[in-house]
Specification:
The structure holds two protein chains of two kinds. By secondary structure, chain A is mainly beta. Chain A is built from no helices and eleven strands. In chain A, strands 2, 4, 5, 9, 10 and 11 form a six-stranded mixed beta sheet that branches. In chain A, strands 1-3-8-7-6 form a five-stranded antiparallel beta sheet, with no helix packed on it. Chain A is globular. In chain B, the strands form two sheets. In chain B, strands 2, 4, 5, 6, 9, 10 and 11 form a seven-stranded mixed beta sheet that branches. In chain B, strands 1-3-8-7 form a four-stranded antiparallel beta sheet, with no helix packed on it. Classes of the chains: A mainly beta, B mainly beta.
C-alpha cells in the first residue's frame, strides 16, 4: 500500500523564522510529488516535483525532491502569520489515478 | 474562470437520511476526483470519474456510497443511510487530464455533519 508520511505533525514558530517541512514516501511507480497549502477551505496548489535535485521556488517558498532517498522538503523563509496553515504532501503514482496524501503538517506562525 | 464549485458548503443530516454532494469542475476539465478528510487526518481518495464513466472507485466504501458524473451537470457523490462516521469534509478536485503532468484543483469542500 502506498504511504506518505509528513513530519513534524505540527510546528509553532515566530514570524521571521525559517521552517522546513518534511515528506517521505513509499509508493510503487512514482510519477510526481505535490505540495498543497490548506487553510480553512480548499487545498491550494504550491508545487509539483517530478525530477530529483531541481529546486522549485515561489517567493519565500521552495521545495526539492530526492528520488533516491524518497523524500521532499518544503522550505518557508521569513515566515509570516499568513503562512499559518496545514501543508499537505501528496504523491501521484502512475498505476492509479489518485493522489495519496500525508496527514499534513500544521504550521502556526506567531507574532 | 470560476474554480471548482462544490455545494452545499455545509450539510447536516440525521442518521439514516441521504446526503447528496455536488461538484462542478473547472471549465474545460473533464476529470473529477472525490476525497474525504476526517478530522485530524489527511485527504483520502474515494473515486475518480470522467464524463459518464467511473474510472477508479478503489477508495469508495462498497455500501451506501455512489458517485456519478453525467454528460450534463455536476458530479454527484451520494451517501445513503448516513451514519455518524460519515461526518467529514468531502473535497472534489478536477483536472483537464489525468494528473500526471498537471496539478488537480480543489473545491472548497462540503462539510457533512451527521447528527
Amino acid at each position: 500500500e502506498d504511504k506518505v508520511v509528513q513530519s513534524p505533525l505540527s510546528l509553532v514558530v515566530h514570524e521571521g523564522d525559517t521552517v522546513t517541512l518534511n515528506c517521505s514516501y513509499e509508493v510503487t511507480n512514482f510519477r510526481s510529488l505535490l505540495w498543497y497549502k490548506q487553510e480553512k477551505k480548499a487545498p491550494t496548489f504550491l508545487f509539483m516535483l517530478t525530477s530529483s535535485g531541481i529546486e522549485k521556488k515561489s517567493g519565500r517558498l521552495s521545495s526539492i525532491l530526492d528520488k533516491k532517498e524518497l523524500f521532499s522538503i518544503l522550505n518557508i523563509t521569513a515566515t509570516q502569520t499568513g503562512d499559518s496553515a496545514i501543508y499537505l504532501c501528496a504523491v501521484h503514482t502512475g498505476t492509479a489515478s489518485k493522489l495519496t496524501f500525508g496527514t499534513g503538517t500544521r504550521l502556526q506562525v506567531t507574532l | 474562470n470560476a474554480g471548482v464549485m462544490q455545494n452545499p458548503r455545509h450539510l447536516v443530516r440525521r442518521r439514516g437520511q441521504e446526503a447528496r454532494l455536488r461538484c462542478s469542475p473547472m471549465k474545460g476539465h473533464s476529470h473529477v476526483y472525490w476525497y474525504r478528510q476526517l478530522p485530524e487526518e489527511g485527504l483520502k481518495f474515494m473515486v475518480y470519474l470522467q464524463k459518464e464513466n467511473i474510472i477508479d472507485e478503489s477508495g469508495m466504501p462498497k455500501e451506501r456510497f455512489s458517485a456519478e458524473f453525467p454528460k450534463e451537470g455536476p458530479s454527484i457523490l451520494r451517501i445513503q443511510q448516513v451514519v455518524r462516521g460519515d461526518s467529514a469534509a468531502y473535497f472534489c478536485a478536477s483536472s483537464p487530464g489525468r494528473p500526471m503532468n498537471t496539478e488537480a484543483f480543489f473545491g472548497q469542500g462540503t462539510r457533512l455533519t451527521v447528527v
